[in-house]
C-alpha cells in the first residue's frame, strides 16, 4: 500500500510550479517537477551539440544520463543535476525553453523519464506536476488537477516574473506567442500529449490568487477518503 499521489497538469505558465511547491510544503509531500527533468535533458542535448533530429544519439544520451533531483528546504526549488552538473538555473533559460518540447516529444526520452518518475512515486506521498501526470505517469493518482488560465493571463504572469528578475527585453506579445506555440506542440504530439484526464478537476486560475488555488487543492486533498 502506498501513500496518496496528487497529479497537477496543465499548459505552460498556469502557475503549476508555485502552487505545487506550496501544496507540497503544506501537506508534507515530495514535490516532483517533471518539467525540470525534460529541461535537463534538453540542456544536455544542446550542450552535447547533437542534432535535434538525431534520434539514435539522443536515445543513447538519455539512457546513459544520470539525472538527480535533490530536494531543498522549502520554499527553495528542488536542485537538478545531470551527469553531476548543477543545472537548476540554466534549465530556465530561453534557449532551453525554445527546444524542450521537441526533446520531450521523443519516445526514448519519455520512456526513460517516465520510468524514473514512477520510481519516485512508488511509495506515494508525492505531488507531481507536468503535462501527462494524470493521464500517463500516475493514472491511478488519488487527486488529479488540471490547472489552466487564458493565454493572455499566463503571458502576463511570465512577463511579470521576467521583469522581477530584471529581464525586460522580452515583449508580452512575444511571450504570448511562445506559450501558445509550446502548448500547441505539447498538445499535438503523438506520445502522451497534454490533455485533461477525464477524472481530473479543472481549476481556471485567471481570477484566483496563488493562495486561493493552493487552498482549493489542499481542501480537495483533505476530502479524500
Ligand atoms: O513545466 P515546464 O514548462 O518546465 O515543462 C517544459 C516542457 O517539458 C513542456 O513544455 C513539455 O514539452 C515538457 N514536459 C512534458 N511532460 C511533462 C512535463 C513537461 O512533456 N510531464
List keywords for this structure.
15% strand, single chain, 5-stranded parallel β-sheet, alpha/beta, binds cytidine-5'-monophosphate, 3-stranded antiparallel β-sheet, 225 residues, 9 helices
Structure report:
The protein has helices spanning 16-27, 34-48, 55-64, 94-104, 107-120, 133-137, 151-164, 172-188, 210-222, and strands at 5-9, 30-33, 67-70, 79-82, 85-86, 126-130, 143-148, 201-204. It is of the alpha/beta class. A hairpin with an 8-residue loop joins strand 3 and strand 4. Helix 1 packs across helix 9, helix 2 (34-48) packs across helix 5 (107-120) and helix 7 (151-164) packs across helix 8. The model has no long low-confidence stretch (mean pLDDT 95). Bound molecules: cytidine-5'-monophosphate (C5P). Cytidine-5'-monophosphate is lined by residues 12, 34-35, 38-39, 100-101, 104, 130-133, 182, 186.
Summarize the structure.
Residues 6-222 form the Cytidylate kinase domain. The chain is of the alpha/beta class and 225 residues long. It has 9 helices and 8 strands.
The oligomeric state of the chains shown is: single chain
**Widest sheet, order of strands:** 2-6-1-7-8
- Shape, per Cα inertia axes: globular
Distance between the termini: 14 Å
Helix/strand-derived class? alpha/beta
Largest sheet: 5 strands, parallel
> Which sequence of SSEs, written as H and E, runs from N to C?
EHEHHEEEHHEHEHHEH
Strand portion: 15-25%
Tally the helices.
9
Total beta-strand segments: 8
Distinct ligand kinds:
cytidine-5'-monophosphate
Uncertain runs with pLDDT below 50, 5 residues or more? Answer: none
Residues in helix, %: 40-55%
Rg, please?
A: 17 Å
Amino acid at each position: 500500500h502506498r501513500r496518496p499521489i496528487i497529479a497537477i497538469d496543465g499548459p505552460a505558465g498556469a502557475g503549476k510550479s508555485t502552487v505545487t511547491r506550496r501544496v507540497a510544503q503544506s501537506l508534507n509531500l515530495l514535490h516532483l517537477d517533471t518539467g525540470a527533468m525534460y529541461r535537463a535533458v534538453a540542456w544536455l542535448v544542446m550542450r552535447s551539440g547533437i542534432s535535434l533530429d538525431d534520434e539514435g544519439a539522443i536515445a543513447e544520451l538519455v539512457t546513459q544520463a544520470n539525472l538527480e533531483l535533490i530536494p531543498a528546504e522549502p520554499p527553495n526549488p528542488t536542485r537538478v543535476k545531470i551527469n553531476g552538473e548543477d543545472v537548476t538555473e540554466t534549465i530556465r533559460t530561453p534557449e532551453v525553453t525554445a527546444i524542450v518540447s521537441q526533446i520531450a516529444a521523443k519516445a526514448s526520452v519519455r520512456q526513460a523519464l517516465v520510468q524514473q518518475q514512477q520510481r519516485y512515486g512508488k511509495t506515494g506521498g508525492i505531488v507531481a506536476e507536468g503535462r501527462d501526470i494524470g493521464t500517463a505517469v500516475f493514472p491511478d493518482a488519488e487527486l488529479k488537477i488540471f490547472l489552466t488560465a487564458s493565454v493572455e493571463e499566463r503571458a502576463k504572469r511570465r512577463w511579470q516574473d521576467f521583469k522581477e528578475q530584471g529581464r525586460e527585453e522580452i515583449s508580452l506579445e512575444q511571450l504570448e506567442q511562445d506559450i501558445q506555440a509550446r502548448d500547441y506542440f505539447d498538445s499535438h504530439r503523438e506520445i502522451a500529449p497534454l490533455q485533461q484526464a477525464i477524472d481530473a478537476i479543472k481549476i481556471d486560475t485567471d481570477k484566483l490568487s496563488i493562495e486561493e488555488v493552493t487552498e482549493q487543492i489542499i481542501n480537495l486533498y483533505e476530502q479524500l477518503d
